[in-house]
Amino acid sequence: MTLQIALIEPKIPPNTGNIARLCAATDTSLHLIEPLGFSINDGDLKRAGLDYWDAVDLWVHPNWRAFREAMDRERCLYFSSHAEREYFEAPYRPNSCLVFGSETVGLPERIREKHPERCFRIPMTGPVRSLNLATAAGIVLYEAIRQTRGLEERDAGRTVASGPARPRGRRGRPRS
Questions:
Q1: How many whole angstroms separate alpha carbon 164 and alpha carbon 19?
Q2: Angle CA(96)–CA(103)–CA(78) in degrees, nearest 5?
Q3: For residue 67, which of 128, 130, 6, 21 has the smallest C-alpha distance?
Q4: pLDDT in tens, 82-102
Q5: What is the pTM of this model?
Q6: How many domains does the chain have?
Q7: For a disulfide at 99, which of 6, 10, 48, 131, Cβ 3.0-4.6 Å?
């Protein structure tokens, strides 16, 4: 089983490229939910991901609905600076999907309203409203890895009730 990161309508190519590199380094699948603010062939995106793109299990979904059809809702944990609970309280599982909103608008309000019990934030002090998307994804992903390290070994060889370890099928376009 593997952790997954989903980005809803990311806008800044270097952020997505850095998150792709993070995913390659941790064997984490990356889901990009369109519309994107750039082309997957964007030079800035490729440079930020360096030469690791072939090591990324990349899924591109044409919209939120297509992503929701491919991903079991129970696997999703949402991250927003507007959430009440802190990210280390999240119920991480070895097959969790860590969902982040775009750099410009964050996690959509409709998701925060529909799933408040599954929304978490990274605590901050001072005048900063939010962290860079790639920084936030890294903080949350490594906490999920830390918390699930023993769970993966315990769950090995048995079915986890929260669903399959991978999406039920590739949606959208294949990686470029």
A1: 23
A2: 25
A3: 6
A4: 999 999 999 999 999 999 999
A5: 0.84
A6: 1
A7: 6
